[in-house]
Here is the input.
Amino acid sequence: MKLRIDKAKCVGNARCAAVSEELFPLDEDGYIAVEQIDVPAGKEGLARRGARACPERIIIIEDEGQ
Ligand code: SF4
Here is the structure.
């Protein structure tokens, strides 16, 4: 599974990181630090929850994978 993040629109409320700090790393200012995430096997549920948790809807599931 792959996630794409429209980083420029992040407002830094850390809702994604509250779901998983490991999957959704923040930069030193509290904004999402990456534009793409390759979700490790077994973390798909967390990835979906993190995407749903973003009120800005900028975490997009780009590839559901297997
Ligand atoms: S939940 Fe969305 S807006 Fe908030 S820090 Fe994460 S990516 Fe940014």
In short: The chain has a mean pLDDT of 97.
